[in-house]
Amino acid sequence: xxxxxxxxxxxxxxxxxxxxxxxxxxxxxxxxxxxxxxxxxxxxxxxxxxxxxxxxxxxxxxxxxxxxxxxxxxxxxxxxxxxxxxxxxxxxxxxxxxxxxxxxxxxxxxxxxxxxxxxxxxxxxxxxxxxxxxxxxxxxxxxxxxxxxxxxxxxxxxxxxxxxxxxxxxxxxxxxxxxxxxxxxxxxxxxxxxxxxxxxxxxxxxxxxxxxxxxxxxxxxxxxxxxxxxxxxxxxxxxxxxxxxxxxxxxxxxxxxxxxxxxxxxxxxxxxxxxxxxxxxxxxxxxxxxxxxxxxxxxxxxxxxxxxxxxxxxxxxxxxxxxxxxxxxxxxxxxxxxxxxxxxxxxxxxxxxxxxxxxxxxxxxxxxxxxxxxxxxxxxxxxxxxxxxxxx
Amino acid sequence: xxxxxxxxxxxxxxxxxxxxxxxxxxxxxxxxxxxxxxxxxxxxxxxxxxxxxxxxxxxxxxxxxxxxxxxxxxxxxxxxxxxxxxxxxxxxxxxxxxxxxxxxxxxxxxxxxxxxxxxxxxxxxxxxxxxxxxxxxxxxxxxxxxxxxxxxxxxxxxxxxxxxxxxxxxxxxxxxxxxxxxxxxxxxxxxxxxxxxxxxxxxxxxxxxxxxxxxxxxxxxxxxxxxxxxxxxxxxxxxxxxxxxxxxxxxxxxxxxxxxxxxxxxxxxxxxxxxxxxxxxxxxxxxxxxxxxxxxxxxxxxxxxxxxxxxxxxxxxxxxxxxxxxxxxxxxxxxxxxxxxxxxxxxxxxxxxxxxxxxxxxxxxxxxxxxxxxxx
Lengths: 392, 376
Known about the structure:
Chain A is of the alpha/beta class. Helices cover 37% and strands 22% of the residues of chain A.
């Protein structure tokens, strides 16, 4: 028995009303991009309730396993489409089950095309009777070994046995595009993953301060992003040359305020890159109270430099929960590689947890930060990371 | 690239790589095979053994077996000998600046097998005092293990005196970690009971090494199997690695005087420059190996200097290459009496025959610029 197509069902999308067709189109694009990397010669049919993929000569199971990584898909079913004719439906149903090494079955049908003259209950009984007559299988409606699915729709009757779970969530890109601040630590990859799961297309910004930070940190960030490419095919990474600003801060700003001012500079640069890249928001891995710059008071003083929404997916997470997710998405072991990142260099002994707004402004006036910020933005290099991209 | 990390590893010579490739493709047969191909390969293995022993002028008294590294050689020498001869006594003497492959082996013997270990403290010049060895010797002492040249600071131990004391006053054998000494420093090899060669420290290949020991010595093998290498080290031997190691050893010993004179001039250039600098403390004692120069920074971070120089194509080391990624402090520099802060912040530059004066000048120029530029 061969099934010529894969039926893609989407879950949460169904609630989205009139924008739904846009979502379906986006999901179809994501599916095409995902499958296009591995498979040739397949077709995608987009309908209001489902997407169908014509398998042609490809291995349908290999396709399904790729599709299980695409967010926005609820389930995947290998189906065959037949003429809406009960005799044909009976014949195909028998063909589907006759060689299966199982004992019990049931039939579950659904009739969306109300012009089809046989109601679903009757389809169930007719097909089951035919199977009982032609095979040694028995009916078990409570816990059957296999379920013969039949869906009678406008364009034809679909028959299927197996359903595979999808990744759920929303199609990537539906939530817009965000610029994620990525240090190389444990938190930021987890935050990026949570955003991707929500359908947000993630770009990353990394602040590099050679020689205070090792060039190995860039490799680390790129390895982290490669792991996240499991959820988003390619990720754009912006590497900002941050040394001059760091040095200016070190030379001019009282050490207890160094982190506060440094974070403000990072937001200023991020906002400019986000605007250039048409990202609608900035994101980072902060969670309340984890370090000095992440108290609410610090966040307020730091956040003051931008009007852009700053999304903090981990804001209320405990470290242990973050680590759990990091392990699940396999970024943890990369994150704990022992290189200094831009947050651990210049670490003052006593960073303030209660920065004063006016003091911050007064300290910042001492450095010509606007030209330094622009210089950093202009010097930023962008690379595109994919699962199999070479090392930077 | 300017490469000044030769104590970590050296660049393999082109000629040796060619020999390696030729042997590995033409004489790949297993030396234990009883066919012509096996016997042809074995000839190179026997030749390799002879070349090494003759180069070190110990062919009458010693044997050489091929191992994978100096770490393996030290493990076999210490654990293999101690476990085989523990009935003679269970006391071992080492110094407090030994390489981890010696130190950890002996600690394992102590913690897992009940040996007693005396750790001698070096003086401020990084040297073991022969009288301390004399005082530590007991009836039960079976091994004294003292390195010839320290890998971090280059300090030299008085091996000849120590050998005389050990042999006159005890039945113990003297093991010397000679990894940083072969082809660099003159040593009384005939007086040393067990010592080692690391191929990659003398421009041969990583994965090659030898343990050299008096013919009267035997070990409990650490690797059991087909009884290769006189039964002391089972594992199919790589003829190509053994032979390239032998050629590298021969050449290193042959050129030792010439190269050391050259390196000594580089070393004194570096030392006289750093002697004039503020905010550093020189850790390498005056009388140390010219191949290694170690100092600590007092107000900059060593790892940042290493990174800055590396970004400009100049490779130097901080603390010890094997474990520099973990920002630990140097136990060797601490043993010289330096503070924790200084031991945390060491830089090492190390030379070999390929190092040129221009390299050193370029390094110093870049170093000055980096120190002027970086904060911390």
